[in-house]
């Protein structure tokens, strides 16, 4: 009780101090006549929406208003300057740069400005087994395939080959990558699991859950054009949290797709980039997804690194066209020492239908195998515990499980930007759904020709494409989400996570410094945080072209999007131009210093090599002299013995 009373007194003292500071700031404004924002009105501008303390009555301590001037001062602040909210919003970037810990007065009438989402209306799910992965090609389409095959040769990369529209799935590859998060609740469970072995099992279970959702027939999603983005969200009913998914095509040649997934309240985030490659082998081809994804449990500081299987299509020239998954997969956590190895098996040449979509694997601690997995990745998988010898069902996508999985929410078409996937490909999708292949081909050609033209224009102007939501580390080459926030969730301070214009943010009760660990470029970009509503934790501004590392694009790319931030990004950009240029210069100087250090290290290594060779030669010379001395000494001893023997 004494501790509780002390805490309440401290809270009262904190609020009383802030009110007095607000009054002093207000008096300064009145005396000086300057256009500035008082501290208390700034706090009022960042009130929480619909949030109330449980101990509100206790906070109204008699000491809170110990004198009449404080009470009158608060009333004056509430009634003064009706434009206080607008002014505070204009200056909130400067306030967030100071990163003050501030008390937030609550205002239930303020609305949270976030992207509206609507429940996904239609979803296509293929059946388990080989039937959903085969397709009979019509005679008309076979002629198109033969025309296509005349342009390629075995072993050729098909990334630059224009594919016919009849094999396209009417959605973008960026959308396709989101299939892995319909069961993100498995990750929510893994984040709070105390046993490291059980955590690894839940991670493996989540990984496998992303494959049973497949289109009917043999279909390939659209190749995203550079600058294309996609965003969606899943609502977790059990934890009342949201999992946000953001993806962008950051390069066209080579085609690289970067993505970021975040649910800070449930304690996990995931990031990665995929380089899509394809190889033609005559009667078959493989779509290879080269890259890694990093799953992080925020409360534990554990990273799980994983890769992706490849898709194999056979029966192009003869036989039935069939799509399968194959390859060796590794999921490893360096901190705990646990790892999992999975093998997606292709159907043998003489195999039965039971051999389709087979998967096997093992879960290990170091080199010790703890459990093995066997089954089919689109149906039932069993786990065999090596210690107990028991065999249990590890994964089974039953109709009940499919019915109860998380519901995906997407951005309405009218709220989407010009370069968001659904809006960008809407005409192609409409033509494919209407089975009008001619119209689909024409609309697809318009998009492809537009990005080629834009690429030629950028090349003529010696300009590089600048990603809007991701940035590339100049040292490692990895792509990182610009607005990544990997701090553990603080239930006493963090209120809600939301997304606006591709920026995933967190509304907080108190402004606190964001401490991020990451790459060199992420540390160099620790700029002011943007506050869209009240007091919320955000991340650095988007950089201009002059501050961006060069992307690997060299050749065909898409029209550059004319992006506008609905919360006044043009005003923010003009305000922070000088700061961003300075940070870009600092990054350049840092890179130059690193290059200088590398050069110095090379010089030192060369000097060490020369000294080492000299030392070896001197050692050999020294060794030779010592051997000669030994011979002389031995000769003298023998001579002395002979003399003594003769003169005896």
Summarize the structure.
The protein is of the alpha+beta class. It contains 16 helices and 23 strands.
Written description of the protein model:
With 648 residues, this protein is of the alpha+beta class. It has 16 helices and 23 strands. The strands form 4 sheets. It has a 16-stranded antiparallel sheet that branches. Strands 21-22-23 form a 3-stranded antiparallel sheet, with no helix packed on it. It starts with a helix and ends with a helix. 32% of the residues are buried. About 22% of the residues have low confidence. InterPro entries: OSBP_sf, Oxysterol-bd, Oxysterol-bd_CS. It comes from Ataeniobius toweri. Keywords: Lipid transport, Lipid-binding, Membrane, Transmembrane, Transmembrane helix, Transport.
Percent of sequence in beta strands: 15-25%
| Helix/strand/pairing category | alpha+beta
Mean pLDDT: 74
Helix content bin: 25-40%
| Low-confidence segments | 19-109, 516-569
DSSP strand tally: 23
Discrete helix count:
16
Largest sheet: 16 strands, antiparallel
- Overall geometric form: globular
C-alpha end-to-end distance: 108 Å
Please compute the radius of gyration using only Cα atoms: 32 Å
List keywords for this structure.
alpha+beta; three-stranded antiparallel β-sheet; 16 helices
Question: How do the strands and helices of this protein lay out in sequence?
Answer:
Elements: H1 2-32, H2 39-44, H3 56-59, H4 68-79, H5 84-98, E1 118-119, E2 134-135, H6 139-149, E3 168-172, H7 173-176, H8 185-192, H9 196-208, E4 220-222, E5 229-236, E6 241-251, E7 256-263, E8 268-280, E9 284-297, E10 302-306, E11 310-314, E12 321-333, E13 338-344, E14 358-365, E15 368-376, E16 381-385, E17 391-395, H10 399-404, E18 408-410, H11 421-424, H12 426-433, H13 437-460, E19 470-472, E20 479-481, E21 494-500, E22 503-508, H14 520-524, E23 536-537, H15 569-575, H16 577-646
Parallel strand pairs: 3-4
Antiparallel strand pairs: 1-18, 2-12, 5-6, 5-18, 6-7, 7-8, 8-9, 9-10, 9-11, 10-12, 11-12, 12-13, 13-14, 14-15, 15-16, 16-17, 19-20, 21-22, 22-23
């Amino acid at each position: 009780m004494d501790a509780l009373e002390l805490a309440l007194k401290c809270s009262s003292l904190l609020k009383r101090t802030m009110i007095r500071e607000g009054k002093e700031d207000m008096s300064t404004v009145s005396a000086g006549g300057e256009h500035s924002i008082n501290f208390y009105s700034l706090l009022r501008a960042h009130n929480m929406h619909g949030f109330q303390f449980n101990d509100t009555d206790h906070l109204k301590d008699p000491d809170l208003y110990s004198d009449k001037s404080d009470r009158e001062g608060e009333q004056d602040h509430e009634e003064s300057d009706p434009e206080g909210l607008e002014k505070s919003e204009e200056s909130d970037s400067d306030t967030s740069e100071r990163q003050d810990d501030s008390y937030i007065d609550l205002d239930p009438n303020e609305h949270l400005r976030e992207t509206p989402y609507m429940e996904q209306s239609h979803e296509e799910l293929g059946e388990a087994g080989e039937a959903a992965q085969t397709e009979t090609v019509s005679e008309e389409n076979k002629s198109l395939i033969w025309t296509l095959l005349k342009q390629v040769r075995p072993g050729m990369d098909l990334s630059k080959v224009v594919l016919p529209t009849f094999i396209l799935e009417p959605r973008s590859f960026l959308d396709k990558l989101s299939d892995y998060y319909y069961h993100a609740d498995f990750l929510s469970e893994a984040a709070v699991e105390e046993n490291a072995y059980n955590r690894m099992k839940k991670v493996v279970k989540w990984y496998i859950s992303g494959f049973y959702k497949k289109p009917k027939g043999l279909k390939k999603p659209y190749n995203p054009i550079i600058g294309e983005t996609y965003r969606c969200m899943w609502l977790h009913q059990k934890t009342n949290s949201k999992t946000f998914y953001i993806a962008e095509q950051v390069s066209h040649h080579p085609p690289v797709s970067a993505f970021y997934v975040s649910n800070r309240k449930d304690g996990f985030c995931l990031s990665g980039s995929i380089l899509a490659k394809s190889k033609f082998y005559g009667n078959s081809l493989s779509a290879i997804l080269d890259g890694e994804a990093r799953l992080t449990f925020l409360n534990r500081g554990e990273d799980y690194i994983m890769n992706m299987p490849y898709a194999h299509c056979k029966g192009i020239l003869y036989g039935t066209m069939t799509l399968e998954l194959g390859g060796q997969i590794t999921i490893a956590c360096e901190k705990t020492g646990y790892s999992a190895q999975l093998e997606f098996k292709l159907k043998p040449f003489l195999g039965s239908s039971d051999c389709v979509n087979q998967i096997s694997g093992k879960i290990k601690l170091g080199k010790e195998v703890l459990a093995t997995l066997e089954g089919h990745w689109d149906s039932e998988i069993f786990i065999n515990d090596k210690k107990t010898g028991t065999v249990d069902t590890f994964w089974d996508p039953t109709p009940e499980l499919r019915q109860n999985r998380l519901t995906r929410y997407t951005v309405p078409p009218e709220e989407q930007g010009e370069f968001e996937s659904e809006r960008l490909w809407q005409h192609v999708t409409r033509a494919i759904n209407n089975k009008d292949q001619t119209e689909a081909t024409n609309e697809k050609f318009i998009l492809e020709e537009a990005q080629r033209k834009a690429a030629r224009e950028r090349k003529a102007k010696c300009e590089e494409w600048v990603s809007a939501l991701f940035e590339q580390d100049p040292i490692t080459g990895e792509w990182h989400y610009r607005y990544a926030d990997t701090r553990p969730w603080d239930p006493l301070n963090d209120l809600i996570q939301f997304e606006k214009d591709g920026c995933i943010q967190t509304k907080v009760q108190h402004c606190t410094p964001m401490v991020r660990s990451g790459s060199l470029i992420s540390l160099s970009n620790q700029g002011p945080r943007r506050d869209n509503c009240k007091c919320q934790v955000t991340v650095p501004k988007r950089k201009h072209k002059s501050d961006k590392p060069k992307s690997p694009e060299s050749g065909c790319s898409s029209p550059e999007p004319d992006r506008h931030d609905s919360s006044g990004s043009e005003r923010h950009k003009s305000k922070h131009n000088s700061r961003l240029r300075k940070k870009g210069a600092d990054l350049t100087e840092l890179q130059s210093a690193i290059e200088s250090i590398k050069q110095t290290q090379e010089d030192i290594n060369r000097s060490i090599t020369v000294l080492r060779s000299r030392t070896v030669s001197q050692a050999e010379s020294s060794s030779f002299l010592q051997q000669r001395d030994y011979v002389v000494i031995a000769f003298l001893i023998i001579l002395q013995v002979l003399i003594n023997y003769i003169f005896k």
